[in-house]
């Protein structure tokens, strides 16, 4: 199962730069919020371009776009691939977009070679992966998978009070196809890593074996406001210093469960917020992740136990509430192996890794065998106008995508 | 030097409750912002009441009020005492007010006894001690002492854009007397402790030997924003965890310089403030205090050295800027001893202590021999509608004030 088909990295790069015009920002990034005028523009471009490549484009009732190249077996389910074309408010040119345009490049390469696959191939643009304008993230792959309720999502509003459903109709992308009706033989998503590991280890391809489980915890620490000048150190019930110990406990627990575990305190408030008042209240929002479900449970337990010790030691109350948990995801082994073999066949340095960020592929993995491919991005920076990836790495990712798809066409996951 | 003069604690308490009506809040506190209608009401009451007690009331050009009882030596400078009648926006019934009304009670007690002092006695209400409506705090004792510029203070505005000078004229308290023209032989201020020490140690009288020196430091910690899911722990430059170490360093330095030293991190911001983004920037505002100037300098040096270690250890930048330093104040030893002797003569449990908070007496100490007396307040709570002190403790403070004044009248500081 090896072909000589070579994608055209210059053409892929030129297509990336072409779409980056829709919502281009002065700093070289992209602002293409879901269902905005810019989103409509890139969708129109995508539809026209896919049709020009001979693909049949269909849109479902929540705006997911499917561009299909027929296979030789009309009864075979499609092998699908793609990602998303929407961006963060100050996003980059690669997050999501690379996965869609590399799929287009794969289609064009097959067309040029006149190569016929057994299975139909379907390139997908999932609606609203970012969740920046309408929450939550990965919305329409979630609806497709049956994990999110469509009516609720359509009724959701942006900051200006405009609903998702209204905006979807306004830009003309509420399609006729029933959401979730179409199922796939397999799904593969190429994406920038959005982390620093591949770059640091000089690997070109991340063979993604699954996604981390996530636990989100909200905390409130209650001590006592008192005068910074008149309250002796031993008589204080300082919610700031308790917060400091909580932050370091999150880090310590993550290191204890490392290297796979991570833990972050990303938001905190210090109240009442006066230099000469000892803070009586602090709040925090914590994020723990681990690829193993039991380890994730153990991380949460270790952290909450440590919070009790901190509370006792500092005469404060620490209330911790779990507001969300998502179990880890394991991708399909046949797809993981196909990606790994495709990287090896192209002599590209590769490593297996876990996805730290969420992706549409996570929801899709509940509906069909799924896998992902990562390529490096500059210093791991993403969700940022400075987000950057090289032409060579983008091309390598597209090549591995194409080769993996052909391997799966020949030896599909069961 | 001992008299049988006894102040009337019930009358003092009743006067405290009477003035608490001007700006009374539903929760039992007082809202009497400087130069507000409520401030005018209590000032009118104070003037009328002092005049009814035979005192000559004068007002200076920044609203400081002086109520004088003549002495037998017309050439002697007055011995002064008092505090302030303005409050925090959600203040209590005792902060400042006790010092003024205990002085009034002392005057009334002398009147009833027909007791003649050698020195004139002057009861003072300093304008705008709180600084809540017009910054800074201790404004008009500062102008009186020559430490703050009068024109600048008069031009200062509140949130509504009203100037201090306009409001002073509006309520009719821009007096004819030149600010600072009147100087005293001595000044004694009675105040609630605003801290928990006296209550915890079951002492009735705090013999205040001086005021802490204060250093205010502003800090900015710069790491790097990155994705909470994709950035391995060892590759992070987490400004939140650096902030945590900074907070604990402030505490450690204070403990190292304890028990006199204190250190507080009262304000902090965590940016960009997203649960799944490792904070790239944090800011903090720190407050260090110590009664010894050299120790205060050493605390600051120890802290900034520790910040450099934290910055190195966490690959972040920590910029620390000193924005204010106030050297410690030592009160006059003759006055300290007079207060201590007065407490002992009344068999009141007393301890020497440093004032943790700032007071008008600090500025006045630059113009004449000065001292302070503290009485306990409930759980050290102040700047709060729940601020509370007992009738017995208020009465004890007034008694010590009167006795100390008489001791100073007989044996004034040189």
Write up this protein.
Two copies of one chain form a homodimer. With about 425 residues, chain A is of the alpha/beta class. The first copy, chain A, has two domains: about 280 residues, 3-Layer(aba) Sandwich (Aminopeptidase); about 110 residues, Alpha-Beta Plaits (2-Layer Sandwich). Helices cover about 35% and strands about 20% of the residues of chain A. Chain A contains twelve helices and 15 strands. In chain A, strands 1, 2, 3, 4, 5, 6, 13, 14 and 15 form a nine-stranded mixed beta sheet that branches. In chain A, a hairpin with a 5-residue loop joins strand 1 and strand 2. In chain A, helix 3 packs across helix 12 and helix 10 crosses helix 12. The first copy, chain A, is elongated and about 80 Å long. The two termini of chain A are about 15 Å apart. The mean pLDDT of chain A is about 95. The interface between A and B is large, with 63 and 62 residues. Chains A, B: This is Zn-dependent hydrolase. Chains A, B: InterPro entries: Amidase_Cbmase (IPR010158), Bact_exopeptidase_dim_dom (IPR036264), Peptidase_M20 (IPR002933), Peptidase_M20_dimer (IPR011650). Chains A, B: Pfam families: M20_dimer (PF07687), Peptidase_M20 (PF01546). Chains A, B: Belongs to the peptidase M20 family. Chains A, B: One of its GO terms (molecular function) is hydrolase activity, acting on carbon-nitrogen (but not peptide) bonds, in linear amidines.
């Amino acid at each position: 199962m090896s072909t000589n088909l070579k994608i055209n990295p210059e053409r892929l790069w030129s297509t990336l730069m072409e779409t980056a015009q829709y919502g281009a920002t002065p700093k070289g990034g992209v602002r293409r919020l879901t269902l905005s005028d810019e989103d409509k523009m890139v969708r129109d471009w995508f539809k026209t371009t896919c049709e020009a490549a001979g693909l049949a484009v269909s849109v479902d009732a929540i705006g997911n776009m499917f561009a299909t190249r027929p296979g030789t077996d009309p009864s075979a389910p499609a092998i699908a691939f793609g990602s998303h074309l929407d961006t963060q408010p100050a996003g980059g040119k690669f997050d999501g977009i690379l996965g869609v345009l590399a799929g287009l490049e794969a289609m064009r390469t097959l067309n040029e070679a006149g190569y016929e696959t057994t299975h139909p191939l379907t390139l997908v643009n999932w609606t609203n992966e970012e969740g920046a304008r309408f929450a939550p993230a990965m919305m329409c792959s979630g609806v497709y998978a049956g994990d999110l309720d469509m009516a609720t999502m359509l009724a959701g509003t942006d900051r200006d009070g405009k609903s998702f459903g209204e905006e979807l109709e306004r830009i003309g992308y509420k399609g006729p196809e029933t959401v979730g009706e179409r199922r796939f033989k397999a799904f593969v998503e190429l994406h920038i890593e959005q982390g620093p590991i591949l770059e640091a280890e000089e690997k070109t391809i991340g063979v993604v074996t699954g996604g981390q489980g996530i636990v989100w915890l909200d905390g409130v620490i209650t001590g006592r406001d008192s005068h910074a000048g008149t309250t002796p150190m031993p008589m204080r019930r300082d919610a700031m210093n308790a917060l400091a110990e909580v932050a370091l406990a999150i880090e310590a627990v993550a290191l204890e469960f490392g290297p796979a575990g991570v833990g972050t305190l990303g938001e905190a408030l210090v109240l009442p917020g006066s230099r000469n008042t000892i803070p009586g209240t602090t709040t925090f929002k914590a994020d723990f992740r681990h690829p193993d479900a039991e380890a994730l449970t153990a991380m949460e337990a270790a952290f909450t136990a440590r919070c009790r010790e901190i509370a006792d030691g500092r005469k404060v109350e620490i209330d911790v509430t779990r507001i969300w948990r998502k179990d880890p995801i394991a991708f399909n082994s046949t797809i993981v192996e196909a990606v790994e073999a495709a990287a090896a066949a192209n002599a590209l340095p590769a490593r297996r890794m876990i996805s730290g960020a969420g992706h549409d592929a996570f929801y899709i993995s509940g509906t069909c065998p799924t896998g992902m491919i990562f390529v490096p991005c500059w210093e791991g920076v993403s969700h940022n106008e400075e987000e950057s990836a090289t032409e060579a790495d983008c091309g390598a990712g597209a090549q591995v995508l194409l080769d993996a798809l052909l391997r799966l066409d020949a030896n599909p996951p069961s």
